[in-house]
Amino acid sequence: MTLVRVFILALGLLSLAASPARAIGLIRDADIEYGLAKLAEPLIRAANLSPSQIRILLVDDPTLNAFIIDARHIFIHTGLLLKLDSPRELQAVIAHEVAHIANGHITRRAGNAATARTAAGLGLLLAAAAAAAGGGEAAAGLALGAQSSAQRLFLAHTRAEESSADITSVRILSRAGIDPVGALEVQEIFRGQDVLAESRQDPYMRTHPTSRDRLRALKGLVTAARNDYPKKPGAEYWYARIRGKLSAFKRAPKWTMRRADASPAKDIALMRKSVAYHRQSNLSKALEQINAALALRGNKDPFYLELKGQILLENRKFAEAARTYQQAAGQAPKNALVLGGYGRAVLAAGNPKAAISILETARARDVGDLRVLRDLAVAYAKTGKNGMASLVTAERYALQGRLKDAKLHATRAEALLPRGSGPWRRAQDVLIAAKNAPRR
Asked: Which of 84, 130, 316, 366 falls between 20 and 30 A from 227, CA-CA?
């Protein structure tokens, strides 16, 4: 599990100039993201959307919130995930955000915002940043986030939208065979928040306004949809695994040790203990626990292998880490985060040439992974490809919104790369992004 500072391009409705980028921390972990995808898949399908087109990402923030930024991403705060008590509550949160996407709420407001802005203030900046990421379709991966009061007006849903999402989310949950009572249980968490001063409210209340009428209507919808919804073992397992791994990294190791054996599956308990021992710098115990967890999974779990690789890598066992990550990548050859870890381990083991190939594959699957771009720059520099090292560094800065630094490195890359080549054109894209960025 790795905390990544990811910069989201900020968009404020009331300003014609693009707002400064705001850094938020994302927890990028292959295991957690896979588990969230498993829990979300039946909901997305029930909404007649494609699971491959919507990603659930975890924001490293202790406050309670979940939000959408476009039609392709759902963000959930770690604070909310750790607060929820059951898979049906987590799936109710996801269903609600999926409902906003299915109902086109963010799309309509984005369209209205676009008409109120200059092309340089919004469209060209986003397009240039997408080009800097290296892919024509990368714009879909660039988030439109928010922080200021004006920006909250953009992200905050109206009560009408909330009522619409309530209706749709209950239908989604019912179609997916998931008890919609979880939606009411989530609302109970926020009971009384609407009477607090805004500064004391959880962000969810500011972006998801509620009312007594809306809650009464939601209760009616859930009551009407009640049925015999059997528990789903897969959902129970992945919910416990997600929260177990997250809490093992976020809570004190002693806290994890006291609670690990209460996990619903033995492999999850062992995984949690492995993380706790790793955080206590007890390598032998950490490996003992994760190896036992792997054995229970038939040694066919790429994400437990990835965790083992991470433990080895962070203990400077580079060759062993590379071999373990290779096993993980063999079982999950399309997972960008696993591939990124594999390339990182190979680079640390002293084989930058091989690392470049692996990292470029990871980058092609996730253009916004800043760690991969950082590692790629190091690998290119170690192999004497300074032009490519400068290019990748420029692209990383561009994605961070640090366009002044991006311009500096793109200028260096432009001078070192063959004129007219693909990498040279990518350097040009970064320079165009820097030029078109609004002056602050």
From this structure: 84
